[in-house]
Each structure stands twice: as C-alpha cells, then as structure tokens.
Write a structure and sequence with these properties.
Blueprint (H helix, E strand, L loop, with lengths): L7 H21 L3 H17 L9 H40 L6 H20 L2 H11 L5 H8 L3 H28 L1
Family: Belongs to the sigma-70 factor family. ECF subfamily.
Protein name: RNA polymerase sigma-70 factor, ECF subfamily
Keywords: Sigma factor, Transcription, Transcription regulation
C-alpha cells in the first residue's frame, strides 16, 4: 500500500502553530498531559479535515478547534465531578446508616414503633384522626383544618389535643408492657 503524499499546507500549519495551541490549552487546563492530548486531537482533526485548502486563516481555525475541544473537556469534567459528588454523598449516607447510633436493632425498633403508631391511629375516632393527620403530617394550621373540616378552631384544638394524649398514653403503655416481658 502506498503512503499518501504529505499535505504541505497541513504540515506547515502543524509545525507553525503547535506550540501556540499547546500553550493556549496549558493555560486553560489543570493538567499538562490533558493539554498535550487536546493539542494532538486538534491536529488530528486538522489533518483529517478535507477542506483545508478553503481555510483562509488556519491559525484562527485551529484555535477555534482548540476552544471547542476545551469546552468539551470542561463539560466532561463537570459531569465527572457531579458523578463523584453523588457517589461521595451515597457513601456518606451509607456510613451514616452504619454509624454506631443507627444499628440494625435501632432501625427495627423504629419500624416497630411506627407499626404501633399506625395501630393506635386506627383506634382514634375518624374526626380526631383526620384533625391530627392534617395538622402533624400535612402541616396545616388549625384555622385551615377548621375550614376544611367545617368545625370551629376550638374543636380542632380539642380533637388534636385528645388524639395526641391518647397516642402518647397508648404508646407508653405498650412500651411498659414490652419492657415487662
């Protein structure tokens, strides 16, 4: 196979502007090796470009190619850092769940307490349960609950207070019974 004849115009551009492009990229990257790789990419693209003869200002053309590669480089870096940050957050969450204060026994106890709370809430009258749920879990004010339920604010206060008292007493009595066993 015969080697293609070297393109004199392309060679002159490579020799004439290589140091300028490399310097330009080195000033804008964190790594000399990244700058060298991007410079090589610029000239690889230049040598593969079919319409070199139609380029009036090869230096400007090469610098634009370098800027484009640099923009792509920074986009990749940004994505890489976002992924690394997400991975670090996930590892931190994993460490927090493995911390001494959050052992599996404590997690099981929290789940058991939530199950107890569900049972106790189901024992409340529908109006008291609704008032408590709207206040504690949906974050509505007593005035908003009053409007939604069509009752007075003082009745809302009584429903919430009675529901909280009942839940506390039931959960405390269940805990005492468990500890006695």
């Amino acid at each position: 196979m015969q080697r293609p004849k070297p393109d004199r115009f392309a060679q002159d551009a490579c020799h004439g502007f290589y140091a300028d492009i490399l310097h330009f990229l080195r000033k804008r990257t964190d790594s000399a090796s990244d700058a060298a790789d991007m410079t090589q990419d610029v000239f690889t693209q230049w040598l593969g470009y079919r319409d070199k003869a139609r380029v009036d200002q090869p230096r400007a053309f090469l610098f634009q190619m370098a800027r484009n590669l640099l923009r792509d480089h920074w986009r990749r870096q940004k994505v890489r850092h976002e992924v690394l940050d997400e991975q670090a957050d996930a590892r931190e969450d994993e460490r927090a769940s493995e911390a001494p204060g959050s052992d599996p026994l404590a997690g099981a106890q929290r789940l058991q307490r939530l199950e107890q709370l569900k049972i106790v809430l189901a024992e409340l009258s529908p109006r008291r349960r609704e008032a408590l749920m709207l206040h504690r879990f949906e974050g509505l004010s007593q005035a908003q609950i009053s409007e939604r339920m069509g009752i007075s604010i003082s009745m809302v206060e009584k429903h919430i207070a009675a529901a909280l008292l009942y839940c506390k007493q039931r959960l405390d009595s269940d805990n005492v019974a468990e500890q006695a066993e």
